[in-house]
TrEMBL record:
Keywords: Signal. InterPro entries: Cupin_8, JmjC_dom, JMJD6_ArgDemeth/LysHydrox, TPR-like_helical_dom_sf. One of its GO terms (cellular component) is cytoplasm. PROSITE patterns: JMJC. The lineage of its organism: Eukaryota, Sar, Stramenopiles, Ochrophyta, Bolidophyceae. Residues 1-23 form the signal peptide. This is JmjC domain-containing protein. One of its GO terms (biological process) is positive regulation of translational termination. Residues 256-418 form the JmjC domain. Gene3D superfamilies: Cupin, Tetratricopeptide repeat domain. The keyword Signal applies. It holds the Pfam family Cupin_8. Coiled coil: none annotated.
Amino acid sequence: MSSPSNTLFLILLLVILISSTSSTTSGEDLHKQALTLAKSGDLQGSLKYFRGAVRDEPTNHKWVNDLGVTEMRVGELKKAGTRFLTSLHLSPSYSRALKNVQQLQTFVSPSEWVHLYAEWLEADPGHGFIEGVEPRPLSTGQRHKTKNLPVVTYESLLDPGNETVAEFILGAHPYILVGAMDHWDISAFSESSLVSEFGDARVDYYPQGMKEESVHPFFSDLRDALKNFEDPDGLYDTVDASSRNTYIQWNVRAAEWERLRLIGMDLPPMFRTDDSWISSCFSPLDRVDEFLVKTHWRMVLIGQTGAGMFNHKDTLQSTSFQAQVKGRKRWHLCSSEQDRNMYKAGDINAFNPDYEKFPNALDLDCFDDVVESGMMVYYPANYWHQTRNLDPFTMSVSGTLVTDGNNEPISKEFDRECDTSKGVRIFNPEEKLCEGLNKCKEIWRMKSWKEDMAADVEKVVRMRKGASEL
Ligand SMILES: [Fe+2]
């Protein structure tokens, strides 16, 4: 029989357990809290609660308007404008939002207004002009030249006699590869199996996406980062988490990469050429993971609709592939011939450039395409790239490669990284890591790139032939 003190202890334990498992706060509660703070004059403090409420219920036109009012009052005018437009988009007859548009227009110039209206229109294909809201942008969206990426089939890449595609494999042209993911076990990449297999993996987590260069990540494990997709727990003091465009960047370590392979990631031989030199250079020095993580060599990227990476070129001059596991991703790719039309990394939103501010962008001639689940995209060194997820749960696996064409510039980049007098660019150099990189440079210099690739491809073709004859 339990004593009264034991019973009391059990009740207390139960209360603690219940309160620690019910951490989800509803949008209703967040909105109430936001109003209380705003009424007490703490506008800045109320913002994160308004934003949390809107993330929880993005179609609540009143809450979206309330958020806009608060942003207008603290001087975040551009954001306020997009909230009022969204509120009217959700409820065209909502007169309060219309009045707020008119008030906002007394604080911004007509050209600023038109620009924010154009940005808002472009941000979501479902957005359109709103009745009664003037002035309207005369044009929006891309006006520079773009074309689709070449599409190459995996079968044709594996055909050594096919000279027209031979230059694509790890060459100087970007392309979409189809048919190379037919043997992947996609079920291994479901949210639940990722949590059970890799829940403790450390990830960088961007609750507001990576559309601007200045955003900084939160650090968390994959389990919590995925949970925060739907329920941005704790709210964020310093970032605007109102939109569902969270981006998770998981820098995959060696053991995790191996495990991904074991459970369903079946990479073609041309995208596995780094395995042997990574092991030769860094395993004896116990620096494999340090190399992989510091260079973002291999990543799993998980994001919501609208999340993406701002326009940039990879500093390391590396070549990359990305396998689209779930959802669709839009890619804008430009060669370095377009440098003068691109300004600085992050200046241009390639999907909707501000041609007034960056007039050279009108002369851009680039690729713009959508990579769908089951396709891979390849782009060579020195290519500008910008991405945007088009579905609520989008996932891709990316890898970096050293090739025949880029091993010399990469070697120079690593020399620069390891020269401490030049300051930190990508990573803090460490003696053993640089020792490993020196070994890599030697391996790359001596490597017979074309012959090794041909042998790898031949091996796969033989294996496939053997399998079909069984
Ligand atoms: Fe990149």
